[in-house]
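Figure 6 in text form: structure in, sequence out.
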């Protein structure tokens, strides 16, 4: 698995240092409000777990399961929600937590879906944001790291469901992506 990584972008200590900063910002901004976190599965799992353990507020946690890649390294643009029940977000202050903002399709669809339930406020927190022109515009409130437009894996991020358990974030070797693009 390690041999499939072209280079490490953020190792564990670098990720954890940045999470300390993000958690401090979030804790300050929500100190007088009851926060409801909606984590977008599966990619945000590690990030959400490590981030929220650093936020000492009485928050609620719920999940949405969304997919737009369907086994490819390019988004299909079609976002599928894998469960029917919408988290209860009416009149709540919502923080959406996701792994990475790429084309914007996923987070735009997630925001639209949650907004139908009339939350009080919606903010977006992503671990990674690719610096690129997006198909859909998404306003982010908390961003861990901005990265180049490269395919990354590890720390929750997958390629065809692999590499999620790497403790760091790295760029996947290009030939692995090419081999599998039909
Ligand atoms: P978007 O809809 O194109 O913004 O992509 C969002 C989703 O695609 C993320 O939540 C990830 O699951 C996946 N994704 C986008 N870029 C990458 C990447 O570089 N590595 C792994 N997954 C990615
Ligand atoms: Mg994801």
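Output sequence:
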């Amino acid at each position: 698995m390690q041999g499939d990584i072209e280079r490490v972008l953020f190792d564990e200590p670098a990720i954890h240092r940045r999470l300390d900063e993000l958690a401090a910002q979030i804790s300050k901004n929500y100190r007088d409000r009851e926060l409801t976190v909606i984590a977008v599965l599966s990619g945000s799992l590690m990030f959400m777990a490590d981030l929220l353990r650093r936020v000492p507020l009485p928050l609620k946690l719920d999940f949405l399961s969304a997919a737009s890649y369907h086994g490819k390294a390019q988004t299909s643009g079609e976002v599928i929600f894998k469960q029917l029940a919408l988290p209860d977000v009416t009149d709540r202050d919502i923080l959406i937590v996701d792994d990475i903002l790429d084309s914007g399709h996923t987070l735009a669809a997630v925001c639209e879906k949650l907004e139908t339930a009339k939350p009080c406020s919606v903010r977006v927190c992503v671990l990674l944001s690719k610096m690129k022109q997006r198909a859909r515009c998404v306003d982010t409130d908390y961003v861990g790291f901005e990265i180049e437009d490269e395919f990354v894996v590890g720390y929750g991020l997958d390629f065809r469901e692999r590499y999620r358990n790497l403790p760091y974030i790295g760029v996947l070797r290009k030939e692995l992506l090419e081999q599998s693009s039909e």
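Caption detail: The domain at 13-147 is CATH 3.40.50.2020 (Rossmann fold).
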